[in-house]
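hiii so um. not sure if this is the right channel but i have a protein structure encoded as tokens and i wanna go backwards to a sequence. like what aa goes where. can anyone help
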């Protein structure tokens, strides 16, 4: 379990760097160093730049944690092999889709430990995506999931915990029901964060940074509200200042 410092609100922020351009990603990582706890590289960057690109961004911001957001979802054997390779890159957090099932999640967890150990690194936290924050109840009903987003998120979070994962990705709106079901020692990482007045874009289940921290989030994933402006470091600092004091202890 990581030590989360309530005294350092910046440590709670992972900035999503969503670009296919390695120079832009490295520049953002450098500019954000010290203003956020970590950066998140996902499918857009990894598909374009691969492991070498990840290493270049890590080198541009030494000491900044990495959330490698590759959201694996395949059969357990394939996910395990992919996770072994991903964990060798030294991320602090990796993830899979909970809808891949319990066996797939458990295989991912084991493989992450193996991949990190093979290169002498600390095993990453392995977390599961529950329901993407771009989906609402109507969207998941069209996929045959009846009962609403909240029920589905709690169901998948419970499965992730049974598989031995460290936590889940969820919208801030589901923090309270997940905490009620699973207690305080399960890491909740929340995207879909929008400071008051900023554009929601494609996100449907949003909350402000302060609301999300007060609800009990451990980490906030924030992309465009930080990276979309002229001064990303200033935007990150403003969000850290806003959440100061609203984190659970
Ligand atoms: O720019 P924005 O703040 O919307 O970025 C959110 C980031 O979080 C994106 O990189 C997106 O891929 C990721 N994410 C998400 N919803 C999830 C899981 C990850 O928006 N359920």
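sure thing!! here u go:
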């Amino acid at each position: 379990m990581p030590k989360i410092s309530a005294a350092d609100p910046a440590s709670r922020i992972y900035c999503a760097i969503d670009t296919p351009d390695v120079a832009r990603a490295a520049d953002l990582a450098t500019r954000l160093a010290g203003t956020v706890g970590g950066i998140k590289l996902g499918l857009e960057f990894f598909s374009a730049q691969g492991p070498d690109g990840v290493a270049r961004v890590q080198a541009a911001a030494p000491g900044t944690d990495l959330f490698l957001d590759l959201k694996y979802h395949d059969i357990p054997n394939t996910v395990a092999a992919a996770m072994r390779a991903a964990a060798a890159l030294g991320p602090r957090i990796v993830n899979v889709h909970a809808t891949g099932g319990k066996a797939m999640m458990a295989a991912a967890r084991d493989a992450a430990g193996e991949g990190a150990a093979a290169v002498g690194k600390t095993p990453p936290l392995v977390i599961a995506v529950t329901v993407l924050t771009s989906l609402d109840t109507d969207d998941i009903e069209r996929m045959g999931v009846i009962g609403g987003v909240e029920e589905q998120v709690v169901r998948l979070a419970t499965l992730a915990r049974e598989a031995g994962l460290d936590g889940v990705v969820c919208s801030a709106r589901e923090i309270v029901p997940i905490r009620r079901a699973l207690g305080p020692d399960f890491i909740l990482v929340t995207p879909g964060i929008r400071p008051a007045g900023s554009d929601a874009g494609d996100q449907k289940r949003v909350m402000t940074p302060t609301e999300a921290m007060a609800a009990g989030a451990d980490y906030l994933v924030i992309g465009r509200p930080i990276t979309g402006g002229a001064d990303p470091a200033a935007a990150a600092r403003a969000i850290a200042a806003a959440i100061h004091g609203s984190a659970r202890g």
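oh and The chain has one domain: 9-248.
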